Amino acid sequence: MKYEDLVPWTAKVAAWAHNYYATLRGRPVRPTVQPGSVAAQLPVAPPEQPESMETIFADFERLIPDAMTHWQHPRFFAYFPSNAAPASILAEQVANVLSAQCMLWQTSPAATELETVMIDWLRQALDLPAGWRGVLQDTATSATLSAVLTMRERALEWRGLTEGLSGAPILRIYASDQTHSSIDKAIRLAGIGQNNLVKVPTDGDWAMRADRLEEAIEQDRAAGYLPAGVIGCIGGTSIGASDRLHEILAVARRHSLYSHVDAAWAGSAMVCPEFREIWRGIELADSVVFNPHKWLGANFDCSVQFLRQPADQVRTLAIRPHYLQTLDAEEITNYSEWTIPLGRRFRALKLWFLLRAYGLEGLRARIRNHVHWAEQAAEQLQAFPHFQVVTAPRLSLFTFRYVPPASDPDVATRELLERINRDGRTYLTQTTHAGQFVIRFSIGHFETTWDDVATALQAIQESAVTMQ
Fold first, then answer.
1. Where would a tag sit more exposed on the chain, N or C end, judged by fewer CB atoms within 10 A?
2. What pLDDT was estimated at residue 324?
3. Average pLDDT taken over every residue of the chain
4. pLDDT for res 328
């Protein structure tokens, strides 16, 4: 294939994409395939000779779409959304054509400077303090690992980078049990160790207790440990729980501990002023992450890490060999020094297209709809026979279970979930909350309508009837 072949094939792919989205509501959200079924249809060895794009694309159409879970389906209510607004899709196509490696300013001047401006646009949209800066990461996992490494080095006065952790004090990081598993992964990968992630008790609203955080820090210091950081949670993955940041970050400040807030999902809702009460005190944080690729409409991957003072993270992560230096330009920004990977994609372009194509008011309208529809859905589902809403909507996420008479609710709820997902009209996932198996219902797809929510509720109710 040659570059001149791009024009007809780009048109064919665009036509396929148009048809895909036009027919998406009629497809089952999750495929009915068995493990290994796709691999069994692929050759065991790579081709020695070129194959035509006609053959390649025909095989794609035959093998791939019907064996995919359709994340862009408007009745995808599982996990959290991973959106791809049309304007963002176009930006990704342009970025793919440019195929820039945006590691340094000199390798990508426009990409670097657009990233700086887009971070500030989003800072303003979320009403974060003036002067905060930030960087685009691939996912919240990478942003959290960057923050945890910064906690580690700040506590060790940056000796860990040169001397390693052997013989160093045992560090302690504090979070609640509502935080995402990426927090645990970061603690492990940073060499701090799972046993040194202290899960601070929560209150009746599943928020970290500030008094117990203070107590844990003081006890650890007395026992010879070295407290290094506090991680707050806004919109936790399980039930959407949020910490009271104004309380726990004040404790972190008192003890001079670096703080990071994981708002990967709920951060997008902060474009709506009426929802910002859930992160009151955010201005006390050192690092905050949210994912525009979840609820704001940007293609995956696109995660924003805001930094109150970037110097500590840059000091932790930056390394500048001679071959990566920009001669006669010492004060420029090289975002690869703010993140773990050296290589960086042109992620800012899709934010630029997205924010301009829909405007903040257009994005706010979608989020407000999703929150309102979650409240309506929970109310209607609660009225179904033998259904119980376990956790009320937090933004656009709630959980429920099925409790028919003379049955084990965990077993019944698990069976109901399997039936719902086999039905194909919607896709839901589970979690465990307070020792109970519950089903999560998370609204957030860019093109979801109330009719889609109503269809999902119908599928849930009809699936329960088949169990009776």
1. C
2. 60
3. 93
4. 55
Residue 340 has pLDDT above 50, yes or no: yes
Q: How many residues does the chain have?
A: 468
Residue 230 CA: distances (Å) to CA of 137, 174, 278, 442: 21, 5, 18, 27
Distance CA 449, CA 365 (A): 12
Alpha helices, H only, 190-280: 210-222, 245-254
Rounded mean pLDDT, 315-323: 76
185-216: per-residue pLDDT in tens?
999 999 999 999 999 999 999 999 999 999 99
Its pTM surpasses 0.90: yes
- Report the CATH number of the 101-345 domain: 3.40.640.10
Find the mean pLDDT for residues 285-303.
95
* Centroid of chain to Cα 249: 22
Q: Where are the domains of the chain?
A: 101-345
The rounded distance, in Å, linking the Cα atoms of 238 and 430 is 8
Q: Residues 374-407: pLDDT tens digits?
A: 999 999 999 999 999 999 999 999 999 999 998 9
